[in-house]
Design goal:
Strand content of chain A: 25-35%
Radius of gyration of chain B: 22 Å
Number of helices of chain B: 7
Order of helices and strands of chain B: EEEEEHEHEHEHEEEEEHHEEH
Oligomer: heterodimer
Strand content of chain B: 25-35%
Structural class of chain A: alpha/beta
Number of helices of chain A: 7
Strand order of the largest sheet of chain A: 5-9-4-1-2-3-10
Structural class of chain B: alpha/beta
Largest sheet of chain B: 9 strands, mixed
Strand order of the largest sheet of chain B: 11-10-9-12-8-1-6-7-13
Shape of chain B: globular
Helix content of chain A: 10-25%
């Protein structure tokens, strides 16, 4: 039997279900006992899904307290001795997972997109070098196997419910780091591209991102962007599609002036409808598109907006 | 104030040589640049040195010797000293070993604060800063896009961290490790003309395993906790694509496609 710990971060309970799909692929033919670690976090989404809910309520433990949270994880691991520990690759997950792996002196693989278990030989697949290469990585030594997974990369497919056992973590040995939250403010982005049904996405070949908004409005969608545009500081990272941005799942994706580096197209393959507009009809993005429009992005956008408005007037 | 900046030199991700047999980047043969997030850390440190000239900044990196010209240029910008950890034995080190090596050197340097970037554009794991903080038992914050200059002292700092949907302001006691993102505003200047050929060799220190004294089995590929066992460029499912021009006929094809699929 394998014992696996998944970290259910406060505010990400629903998203954390995807970690359980990764657990299923990690040990496909073995009985697995799943433990969820909830630190000042609501358990309802995971109740009935994980076998054991380990809860720690301590209001003095601040979010992002890497030192304190790392102590908690290592204490819990010492108590239960897990075969694998999984994190969502949220900003906090990205902060804690490496420190826990260092403390446990084990390997950690970030942003896993697929898992292969070949007769017990586990290979964790991740994109590297800006997504130009997919690498299969093995964790050497005694483990535990540790990985982080981006939100939306795995889809939880389980339907069975279990009787979850609740365990309040008592007597854990941990410190508090010297950090203090002074305040928070919400980001200005009024939408989450992961929830959009239609995305109008601009890349390096799209010189005016603002002009995409009208088309997005007409199609009931949102504007997103490729890394090239975000790195230039034209739009915020919150609307970036791809490995260093977000994994999206709209019904329709219109790629305007996007070349389609592997890190960008990796997450697009399951989107039902893709249209790309590119001066190079052989750009990588075009090979995963239903229709390729050979040409410049902005004139296309203007023409399509005009055609849709004509259609509305008839 | 004493600041240590940990930086990584990365291959230009649009132009690099990969060895598919050893599954490693051929850093000696790839053009290298300062990782963009790390350049922000250097930029902030230099800003603080301009405010407080007695600030002492040491740059620490692990890289092949081919980065020496870039390190010299960093020193010509006004950084006090640079340490390059470089040894063929360290090639292929994963983040665990890299953090261990960097920590072993930083541990011997007096500091009030360590600065680094959050992400590196090549590996993009963000592991090393957190792992160094763990090794040195320091508090750490990453995804920092703003540090309040007036409140950056030897004993504490106030920083703003970018989360998924919000910004959080933290006060953090120093010494600690602060990791910036490329969204932060601190830029590195160009080397001044009069300093272009400034001799900085006395401020550049190169450390090999002779000085660090690690067992070869603990470092490089053999000491790593992870091993790349396969690499491939991903084959994508190709669709039966239809190619049209951006003319009236093409627009009509798109319009019909959107309409028949219920998007209009």
């Amino acid at each position: 039997m394998k014992k696996v710990l998944v970290y259910v971060e406060d505010g990400y309970a629903q998203e954390s279900l995807s970690l359980l799909e990764a657990v299923r692929q990690l040990y496909p033919d073995q009985h697995v006992e799943t433990y969820a670690l909830l630190i000042n976090s609501d358990a309802s989404a995971i109740d009935g899904v994980c076998d054991v809910l380990l809860t720690l309520e301590d209001g003095t433990l601040q979010p992002f307290d890497q030192k304190g949270l790392c102590d908690v994880f290592t204490s819990v691991h010492t108590r239960y001795s897990f075969d694998a520990i999984l994190f969502l690759a949220t900003p906090m997950g990205r902060c804690i997972a490496p420190s826990v792996s260092m403390r446990l002196e084990t390997g950690l693989v970030a942003d896993v997109t697929a898992i292969a278990n070949d007769d017990g030989q586990i290979s964790l697949i991740r994109p590297a070098y800006s997504g130009k290469i997919m690498a299969g990585i093995r964790i050497k030594g005694e483990g535990p196997v540790m990985m982080s997974i981006r939100i939306g990369v795995f889809t939880y497919q389980g339907t069975d419910t279990v009787q979850s056992t609740n365990i309040g973590l008592e007597g854990l040995d941990y410190r508090h780091g010297n950090i203090k939250v002074m305040g928070t403010k919400e980001k200005k982005i009024p939408y989450d591209i992961r929830e959009s049904d239609v995305l109008i996405s601009g890349g390096a070949g799209c010189s005016d991102m603002e002009s995409l908004q009208d088309l997005a409005d007409l199609l009931g969608g949102h504007v997103s962007a490729s890394r090239a545009v975000v790195d230039k500081g034209i739009v915020p990272r919150a609307i970036q599609v791809g490995q260093s941005g977000k994994t999206v799942s709209p019904s329709l994706y219109i790629a305007l002036g996007i070349h389609g580096a592997l890190q960008h197209v990796e997450g697009l393959k399951d989107i039902p409808h893709i249209i790309s507009v590119n001066t190079n009809k052989d750009a990588p993005i075009c090979s995963i598109s239903d229709i390729v429009v050979e040409g410049d992005a902005l004139p296309f956008v203007a023409k399509l907006i005009r055609r849709i408005k004509e259609g509305q007037q008839r | 104030m004493r600041i240590v900046c940990v930086v990584k030199f990365v291959p230009d991700v649009d132009n690099f040589t990969y060895n598919y047999e050893t599954h490693t980047i051929e850093r000696e043969h790839s053009p290298m640049l300062i990782n963009p997030d790390d350049a922000r850390a250097l930029g902030f440190a230099l800003t603080m040195k301009k405010r407080e000239p007695q600030t002492c900044i040491e740059v620490v990196t692990m890289a092949p010797r081919s980065v020496i010209p870039q390190l010299e240029d960093i020193l010509r910008l006004g950084f006090d000293s640079a340490t390059l950890i470089s040894d063929q034995l360290f090639a292929g080190s994963d983040t665990y070993v890299t953090s261990k090596l960097l920590s072993s050197v930083i541990r011997k340097i007096p500091y009030d604060c360590i600065l680094s970037g959050t992400h590196a554009i090549d590996g993009d794991t963000s592991h090393v800063p957190s792992q160094i903080a763990q090794s040195l038992d320091l508090d750490h914050l990453n995804f920092i896009h703003h540090i309040e200059e007036e409140r950056f002292t030897c004993s504490s700092a106030v920083v703003e961290v970018e989360g998924e949907s919000s910004y959080t302001t933290f006060e953090i006691a120093l010494p600690a490790l602060l990791s910036l993102t490329r969204e932060s505003a601190y830029r590195l200047p160009y080397v001044r003309y009069k300093n272009l050929n400034l001799d900085v060799s006395e401020r550049l220190h190169i450390l090999t395993n002779e000085q660090l004294g690690f067992d070869p089995a603990e470092v490089g590929l053999s000491g790593s906790r992870t091993q790349v066992v396969s690499t491939h460029t991903k084959e994508h499912m190709t669709r039966r694509k239809k190619v049209v021009k951006s003319d009236d006929e093409g627009i009509e094809v798109i319009y019909t496609f959107l309409k028949s699929n219920g998007f209009i």
